[in-house]
Design brief:
This protein is α+β, with helices and mostly antiparallel strands. The chain has one domain: Electron Transport, Fmn-binding Protein, Chain A (Pnp Oxidase, Chain A, Roll). It has 4 helices and 13 strands. A 7-stranded antiparallel beta sheet has the order 3-2-6-9-10-5-4. Strands 1-11-12-13 form a 4-stranded antiparallel beta sheet, with no helix packed on it. A two-stranded antiparallel sheet has the order 7-8. It starts with 5 loop residues before the first helix and ends in a 5-residue tail after the last strand. The structure holds flavin mononucleotide. The site of flavin mononucleotide (FMN) has 21 residues, from strand 3, strand 5, helix 2 and helix 3. The site of flavin mononucleotide has 21 residues, from strand 3, strand 5, helix 2 and helix 3.
């Protein structure tokens, strides 16, 4: 064991799950952001926490409309998913600039992304300031998904995406 720089440690600790958070802006336009810092926090009721940087447009969206959909992009969606983690909704409409198709959610206003392995529809119930991010804690109010799309995305540091399936398979050579 040896002492590590924060950057190196963060890289070594990857892969991280890579999901997409869909929010609504002040004009009721949906925005999509790539997100690795999320977790389940409760089974009953089912609850999720997401950590969103203060500078993100998605942060502004969540302060305006307190619902989101957490989508697990499936293999084949990596290029568009990567765009959502590298471009801001302040300067681009990510539903228009990607091939992502919005589908109606069951219980919240922001849409889900068609073809997601799973999408969790969430209502924010609390939030905690933590350094340069806000952790939004939310209750899951509906779940949709595509059970045939078992392979979904993980990030290696901030450099690339791979896919891992609930069947234990791994695919490394994704192009994004
Ligand atoms: C692999 C990866 C993981 C990321 N995870 C997070 C995260 O957990 N929280 C966060 O606030 N931003 C995260 N980001 C950064 C945002 O996705 C990125 O800044 C995005 O352009 C913000 O979009 P927005 O301004 O439309 O909200 C991540 C980016 C990548 C590439």
């Amino acid at each position: 064991m040896k002492e590590l720089e924060k950057q190196k440690a963060f890289e070594l600790a990857s892969p991280y799950p890579y999901v997409l958070i869909v929010t609504l802006d002040k004009r009721e336009r949906p925005n999509i952001m790539g997100l690795s810092w999320w977790m389940f926090t409760s089974w009953s009721p089912l609850m999720i926490a997401v950590s969103v940087g203060h500078q993100r447009y998605s942060h502004e969206c969540l302060e305006h409309h307190r619902e989101f959909v957490l989508c697990f992009p499936s293999e084949g969606q990596e290029k568009d998913a990567w765009t959502c983690g590298t471009k801001s909704g302040r300067v681009t409409d990510k539903f228009k600039d990607t091939g992502f198709k919005a589908v109606h959610s069951k219980a919240v206003k922001p849409p889900a992304i068609d073809g997601s392995t799973v999408s969790f529809e969430c209502k924010v119930v609390d939030q905690v300031e933590t350094g340069d991010h806000t952790v939004y804690i939310a209750e899951v109010v509906a779940i949709q998904g595509s059970p045939e799309k078992v392979m979904h995305l993980y990030s290696i540091h901030y450099a690339k995406l791979i896919s891992i399936g609930s069947n234990g398979k791994i695919k490394m050579d994704l192009k994004c």
